[in-house]
């Protein structure tokens, strides 16, 4: 698959003039393969390459050489991304009218003798991994509607989502993308970001926070109109706010199944609030006051509690009724009047492609926790994970199966090394029907039964 994507030739071309003593392309392939098959540290990789995989054309690499290759990779990142996009988009005839973008965070295990405050890259910020106690970096990913990751970014750990849009827009401008509608999550919906996305006749589909308190959002949600069924679990309606240049186009999406889940979850919370309030009455003064303060400040329960003038806490029934209005709904805004409301809703729903890509990077490819300390090594580590994700997504598209399923089946194909007095024989186990199907679907050749015969001299 590496060769099918042209990765070997792209890297050889990029490093041709540099006259390295080691084969950078082979070192990078080894790290990408390791990330996809058996993610490990560079030290463990030395043993993995020599003992666990059959790679007869692979030089013996030491960990310091792998780190040196990471440094070299970072120096050609832009040219690499440009070449990979050109090759992959031509190979797959990718549809790039919609590009999905989102960010995540990835944390570091920090030794007790480290001083993270001296870093200017590994920083504390809002952690999407729920590890706010650890320093982190922020990673951005642009993904096509087929789920192919075409570009990756890495920023300091305290970078806010709203601050990256201009850089993303600028970085993608030079690519042959044609008419592009960028699809982003609610964290990017500031008016400043929307203006940036519309520069150069660009368009966006973006999520809006329904409880943001914005006047336009309230008006969009309050407009009457019937929902139209697009799919079994997706109903949509359009809501236009304002006229002329001030006109804003919203689409309200409704998922009946999600509405049931939201209602059941809220009912459970209300029951818990009522139990807490009942328990509160039994407490003596000081404990009562302390528990009442904690209850009002509670992130989940607090919004369903109101305090009377005499200090008594009651269930806020109006807040419960207000919450019902949002059950199963999400609000989308778009600048493109040519898209149908169905395309707007389905386009935004496909943002899950990016979330799925992040999930694969963090779990299957073990992106985190990271142990690198230098900024350049961190950036290179993320690029290697992106290349591994690109291969994984290509294989998943070809086979229509998850990478975990493909990997589990293919790793049962073994290379045996047999030694006799006459020499050494390397041969493969007989491929199963499932293994043959995977090779056939990916357009790659099944390894020969006899890999090598080496007579003793």
TrEMBL record:
<dbReference type="InterPro" id="IPR002559">
    <property type="entry name" value="Transposase_11"/>
</dbReference>
<dbReference type="GO" id="GO:0006313">
    <property type="term" value="P:DNA transposition"/>
</dbReference>
<dbReference type="Pfam" id="PF01609">
    <property type="entry name" value="DDE_Tnp_1"/>
</dbReference>
<dbReference type="InterPro" id="IPR012337">
    <property type="entry name" value="RNaseH-like_sf"/>
</dbReference>
<dbReference type="GO" id="GO:0004803">
    <property type="term" value="F:transposase activity"/>
</dbReference>
<dbReference type="GO" id="GO:0003677">
    <property type="term" value="F:DNA binding"/>
</dbReference>
<protein>
    <submittedName>
        <fullName>Transposase IS4 family protein</fullName>
    </submittedName>
</protein>
<dbReference type="InterPro" id="IPR047654">
    <property type="entry name" value="IS1634_transpos"/>
</dbReference>
<feature type="domain" description="Transposase IS4-like">
    <location>
        <begin position="115"/>
        <end position="391"/>
    </location>
</feature>
């Amino acid at each position: 698959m590496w060769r099918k994507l042209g990765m070997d030739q792209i890297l050889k071309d990029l490093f041709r003039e540099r006259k390295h003593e080691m084969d950078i392309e082979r070192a990078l392939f080894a790290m990408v393969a390791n990330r996809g098959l058996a993610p490990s540290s560079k030290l463990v990789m030395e043993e993995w390459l020599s003992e666990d995989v059959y790679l007869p054309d692979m030089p013996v690499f030491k960990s310091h050489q792998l780190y040196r290759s990471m440094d070299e990779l970072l120096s050609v990142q832009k040219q690499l991304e440009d070449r990979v996009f050109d090759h992959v988009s031509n190979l797959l005839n990718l549809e790039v009218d919609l590009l999905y973008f989102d960010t995540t965070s990835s944390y570091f295990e920090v030794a007790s003798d480290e001083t993270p405050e001296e870093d200017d890259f590994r920083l504390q910020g809002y952690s999407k991994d729920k590890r706010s106690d650890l320093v982190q970096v922020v990673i951005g990913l642009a993904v096509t509607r087929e789920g192919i990751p075409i570009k990756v970014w890495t920023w300091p750990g305290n970078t806010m989502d709203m601050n990256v849009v201009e850089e993303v827009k600028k970085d993608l401008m030079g690519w042959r993308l044609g008419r592009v509608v960028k699809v982003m999550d609610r964290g990017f919906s500031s008016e400043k970001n929307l203006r940036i996305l519309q520069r150069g006749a660009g368009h966006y589909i973006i999520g809006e926070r329904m409880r943001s308190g914005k006047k336009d959002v309230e008006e969009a949600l309050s407009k009457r109109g019937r929902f139209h069924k697009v799919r079994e679990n997706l109903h949509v309606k359009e809501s236009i706010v304002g006229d002329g240049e001030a006109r804003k186009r919203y689409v309200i999406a409704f998922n009946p199944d999600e509405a049931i889940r939201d209602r059941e979850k809220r009912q459970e919370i209300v029951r818990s609030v009522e139990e807490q309030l009942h328990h509160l009455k039994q407490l003596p003064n000081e404990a009562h006051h302390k528990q009442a303060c904690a209850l009002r400040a509670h992130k989940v329960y607090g919004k369903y509690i109101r305090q009377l003038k005499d200090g008594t806490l009651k269930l806020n029934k109006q807040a419960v009724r207000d919450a019902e209005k949002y059950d199963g709904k999400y609000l989308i805004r778009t600048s493109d009047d040519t898209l149908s409301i169905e395309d707007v809703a389905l386009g935004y729903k496909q943002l899950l492609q990016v979330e799925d890509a992040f999930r694969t990077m963090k779990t299957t490819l073990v992106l985190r926790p990271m142990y690198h300390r230098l900024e350049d090594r961190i950036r290179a580590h993320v690029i290697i994970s992106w290349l591994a994700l690109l291969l994984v997504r290509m294989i998943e598209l070809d086979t229509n199966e998850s990478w975990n399923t493909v990997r589990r089946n293919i790793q049962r194909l073994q290379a045996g090394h047999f030694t006799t007095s006459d020499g050494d024989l390397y041969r493969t186990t007989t491929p199963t029907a499932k293994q043959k199907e995977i090779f056939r679907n990916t357009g790659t050749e099944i390894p020969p039964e006899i890999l090598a015969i080496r007579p003793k001299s």
